[in-house]
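Request: Show me your protein:
***
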Amino acid sequence: LFLWPAALAGLLSACGGGSDEGLAEATASPASELSVALAARSSAARPVSVNLRIAAARATAESASNACVEARPFYWEIGNVDGAKAAGSVGGSTFKASTLMPYASASKWLYSAYVVQRARGVLSSMDIQMLTFRSGYTQFQASSCEPGQTVDGCLATGSNGKYSAATDGRFFYDGGHMQKHASLIGLGAMTSAGLTNALRSQIGSDVAISYDRPQPPGGAYGTPAAYAKFLRKMLGGQLALGALLGSSSVCANPATCGAGQALKTPVPKEETWRYSLGHWVESDPVVGDGAFSSAGAFGFYPWIDASRTQYGILARVAPSGAGFGSAACGRLIRKAYATGVVL
């Protein structure tokens, strides 16, 4: 049984391109057409030295005048298939590569990777509908489930397994889609330990990620280092989802999608993102860069860039709702590393 540090207990009760070299350690002192276009634009930019990119990313992370100020304290890391290339802790040493923390909704990317790997890269229409949150199972309450329950036990609690015809076929951000999907593919009798074994059987026993609750869409935990290994496996082609990033994506902002395509989203209403198989495509025409990501409620924010050559993580544990604050900082660090310009 994993015991959360006391400092995290209150939070957890609230809700369920190119080659690089060297690692610089900092301290506190569809794929969519847009995604492809943004990646091409980025690769066409003038070459930037590795040292300049690292320095720009570090200065951006430690800036006292950008979105990263509000995200402190946090740990950040950027790398490629070979490993981390730049990393550091900002605002103190609270969070490091080795810090255990809840992934919250970053669990969704993990579950989708499990499903795609198990299906050998060939998904059914049901898989796609549920992994892009258009199944009609939209009344899931993560906090209603207990750690000792099974997947089906959690699904049977309250309205968690209730189907809504009114939301079927339209994007609705909710954990119920994945909880129900897990039940349908035979994971219903599994506890947290069973889910952990199932996940590792597909993404690899070398990826030290576990579940502390029987919830595929939000119950995983581990370290930034463990999640980084998962991301590198997608970059390296060891996980089938890596080739499907951005595929089957749907419009995910009710304020900007046409004809009621989307009903509920955690994305700020002024930004238009898309949702693919358990992960976001940051496709906003103004601030988006086409990256693939999966922000968690407590601030854990992993990404793979649009070119699919770099990965990154911004990791912290903050009050629920911190995911897109982390995204705002993380995308600045990502751009600074790509361009060598401090933001």
Notes: The longest strand covers residues 83-90.
